[in-house]
Amino acid sequence: MFSAEWIYESILLLVPLMFSLTVHEFAHARTALAFGDPTAKSMGRVSLNPLVHLDPLGTIVLIVTRGFGWAKPVPVNPNNLYPRRLGNIMVSLAGPASNLCLAIVAVVIMKVLMAILPAGQEATWQGPVFEMLFWLMIANIALCTFNLFPLFPLDGHHILRELLPPAKQADFMHWQIHYGRYILAGMILIPVLLKMPSPVGWVIMHVASFAIRVFDLGQIWSYLP
Length: 225
Fold this sequence. Notes:
The protein is mainly alpha-helical. Helix content is 70%, strand content 0%.
């Protein structure tokens, strides 16, 4: 651990992930402003500066685990959103949607580079540019998929709440606040403690594997450490 190779590979993995977290939170903040809520803007969160979005503890965990971490949630006042229900859905959806867009951009750049590089240069796939682009795609697929889980405090639970009839929303939020976070934590931590596959990781891995097959990126995957 902490060898030169470990540091090198960590940088290639963590830089795309931190950038993706920053874009995710920026998308929430900018969409909230577009629907009339200036709360995030007043706190300087409508920014692509990672320092205003990254959570200190979440960043430390991200570095140590090289994959799992979190940023500071963007503050949103639903009372300022207009129309309120659509605004809530769009603000919540903006983060995962931004990650999906970043994943597509990474794929397009990789495919263009693969098309213009001379055939037979397999060593090229080991280059830092391809590796960083590949991890940018994987990080954003993971963030998009994970945040759409309908459990508090993830974006998915906000979206599902707004799709429910108004009379059901209070009970749904009561259940989410009391149980949702613990179910989510259990889905992540219990498999680690029991050394068994995580259902969250299983879903993300299958979505990522599907993307690799669809976009024919297995050649790059085979050359990554």
